[in-house]
Design goal:
11 strands
Length: 293
């Protein structure tokens, strides 16, 4: 989206169909386009058509098949090209000279990958991207209510993303931290606000396993993935294990984030930064030093 905004192109994103109903813009547009189109497609107007298409994901499968076909038999020449992740796990900068040389002659660019980034352009066009991803009122209201309840009790609200689930086994559990370790980090932050009351909004994929945080002023997210994410975005600071979940919360809310890579990490306010979606490369994650126990 940032690259499209910079270069005045158009993005069509059928892969977003699973989440389209959650956002004010995409729920009305079968193409999940950016920029937002001036006119709606007939598929969005005919009752039931868009829901059926999204459920079957037929447009996604068609585009994917077209991409595979062209990669094997490039009948369209340079008019169509495909951007893919680096097989080595490196970050590919979309505004870099190699990518620009590849896509410049093309009229259609298929994009397939996880580590295709342009953080400088994301920062430049942040407000337009944020406006595009306004959640539907149900989730906006739930996230707002969760944080407002804590603001009535505190001067500073810190969002804590306690990621559990699959992170227990990913990379041997290197980025899985028990609730008591999160409590230690929460104490560190409280100490850095000696004259202010601090409350914590806790969001987790396993809320019942978060442990006891009775020594703190604590609240919990609404419990849905989108509600929790947008609740974190409304906090003053956010911290948690490595995750794009908290990265998006930081970016959308423009709030400073600290990602935990190690049990021995120390939380210092000067090290928190707003994320502009610069996901670490696979190489970086795989070469992080093991935690000191």
């Amino acid at each position: 989206m940032a690259l499209v905004e910079e270069q005045r192109n158009r993005l069509i994103n059928f892969t977003f169909h699973s989440y389209a109903h959650l956002f004010e813009t995409t729920r009305r547009d079968i193409y999940c386009q950016y920029p937002i189109p001036e006119r709606r497609s007939w598929m969005d107007i005919v009752p039931g058509a868009s829901a059926a298409i999204r459920k079957t994901r037929i447009l996604y499968h068609a585009v994917r098949a077209g991409n595979v076909l062209h990669e094997r038999f490039p009948v369209f020449g340079e008019r169509v090209t495909t951007l893919r992740d680096s097989p080595e796990g490196d970050i590919t900068l979309l505004d870099g000279p190699e990518v620009q040389e590849q896509i410049e002659p093309a009229r259609v660019v298929f994009v397939y990958g996880w580590r295709l980034q342009t953080p400088a352009l994301v920062e430049r066009h942040a407000n337009k991207i944020r406006a595009y991803f306004q959640p539907v009122e149900q989730f906006e209201e739930a996230s707002r209510r969760a944080v407002e309840q804590l603001r009535q009790k505190a001067d500073v609200v810190v969002g804590v993303h306690i990621r559990m689930g699959d992170i227990r086994v990913w990379r041997g559990g290197m980025y899985f931290f028990p609730p008591e370790r999160y409590a230690g980090w929460m104490r560190e932050l409280v100490e850095q606000f000696p004259a202010r009351k601090v409350a914590f909004l806790i969001c987790s994929d396993e809320p019942g396993a978060c442990g006891d945080f009775g020594e703190f002023t604590v609240g919990f997210g609404p419990g849905s993935a989108l509600g929790d994410m947008y609740s974190l975005a409304k906090c003053d600071y956010v911290f948690g294990a490595v995750s794009t979940f908290s990265q998006w919360a930081s970016f959308y809310g423009g709030k400073p984030l600290f990602h935990l890579y190690n049990k021995t990490d120390r939380l210092r306010l000067q090290n928190f930064r707003v994320s502009y979606l610069d996901v670490p490369s696979r190489k970086k994650l795989l070469t992080q030093p093991a935690p000191v126990l």
